[in-house]
Amino acid sequence: MISDQTNAKTGMSGAKCRQVGRTGLEVTQFGLGGTGLGSLYRPVNDDDARATLSQAWKRGIRFYDSAPMYGYGQSERRMGDFLRDKGPKHYVLSTKVGRLLEPGSRDLDTDPFKSPFQFTVRFDYSYDATRRSLEDSLQRMGLPCVDIVLIHDIGTDTHGPELQPQVYRSAMDGAYRALNDLRGAGVIKAVGLGANEWEVCFDAMRDGDFDCFLLAGRYTLLEQTAIEVFLPKCIETGASVFLGGVFNSGILVDPAAPNATFNYKPANEGVRLKALAIQAVCKEHGVSLPAASLALPLRHPAVASVLSGASRPSEIEQIAEWLNQEIPESLWDDLKAAGLLDGRA
User: Fold this and answer.
1) Of the candidates 334, 329, 332, 330, which has an alpha carbon nearest to the alpha carbon of residue 345?
2) Which of 103, 132, 265, 267 is 20 to 30 A from 173 (CA-CA)?
């Protein structure tokens, strides 16, 4: 992998590297998530997608995460097209399994991906479907391998409380077994799980040997529920955490915005007031709220990287600016003293 010294030339704090669990992989402390490259919430053309990836590369970002779901193959295709001539030793790439793509059209008025490929998705966490999903992803990307494969969305947030236990069992009996075999054969380097809730990740550590978890939110300036038992368990087992959703879907970028969302739903007044209070403390220390949002997870030893999506080069530059802000320890002390941050964070 690229060393910290090489990445330091980019002038971007997030280009420093941390090890993934007990593997030999190292990821940059900031990783580019693939949702934006899949036209999440707005159409993104190929030129803008490639320019975004190019700017991320120039800034030293070497960790890229995608999934079949993101633009229904579009994000994987664009990442593969960009990374193909970079050489697999010079980046870390992750994708996900659990959804198979099948030809079909979607209602773009209700679909979150606004100019996706013409496929629909079917959940399938079986052993054979997992191997097929990875093969399909490699073909879409035009790449011979990926480094990390994550079982995608097996929590209650996706499947509901009644169906989730069945989905979980299917994933552990099927997808996990398949990925464990592929890891043992050296086809992939790390096995993980990507979810919106830490509880299912915690359960998975009991039932399997996971190298990493991609957790969306749950350890942010607005919620630190993962710090109680999940993050300590990761340290105990040697698993790394990639933290997505650090802005809680937007409110931690601009809590005063009238359409601010918290975890993809309109933010209620209590959440908005807490975010504004955190922002006020940040301003007292000369720190922007988004910069503090990116920095908090990286303070925990279990967290190897924070991820965020982008679909314009300017968004990469904005993230770089936030990551490079100096954050005094007194900021965290004052947030804790005000009861706005868990004392263990």
Assistant:
1) 332
2) 103
Largest Cα separation within the chain, whole Å, is 55
- The residue among 22, 14, 16 whose CA lies nearest residue 1 is 16
Q: Interhelix angle for 46-58 vs 74-83, to 10°?
A: 50
263-290 pLDDT, tens digit each: 989 999 999 999 999 999 999 999 999 9
Taking residue 135's Cβ as centre, other Cβ atoms within 10 Å add up to: 10
Which CATH number fits the domain that encloses residue 268? 3.20.20.100
Token pair listed for 63: 């960790």
Give me the amino acid identity at 47: D
* Cα distance between residue 222 and residue 176, in whole Å: 32
Asked if residue 345 belongs to a domain, the reply is no
Number of domains in the chain: 1
Q: Which residues pair with 101 in a beta bridge?
A: 121
Residues with catalytic annotation? 65, 70, 96
Q: Give the residue numbers spanning the domain of 219.
A: 4-337
Task: Output the CA torsion sign for 61, 67, 71, 72.
Answer: positive
Compute the CA torsion angle 221, 211, 21, 319 (nearest 10 deg): -40
pLDDT digits (tens, 9 = 90+) for 66-121: 999 999 999 999 999 999 999 999 999 999 999 999 999 888 888 999 999 999 99
Does the residue 343 lie in any domain?
Answer: no
**Residues near 208 by beta carbon (within 8 Å), at least 6 away in sequence:** 172, 176, 180, 191
Domain assignment of residue 344, yes or no: no
For helices 198-207 and 230-237, give the axis angle rounded to 10 degrees.
30
pLDDT digit string (tens) for 185-240? 999 999 999 999 999 999 999 999 999 999 999 999 999 999 999 999 999 999 99
In a domain, 253, yes or no: yes
- 244 contacts 255 by C-beta, under 8 angstroms: no
User: Amino acid identity of 248?
Assistant: N
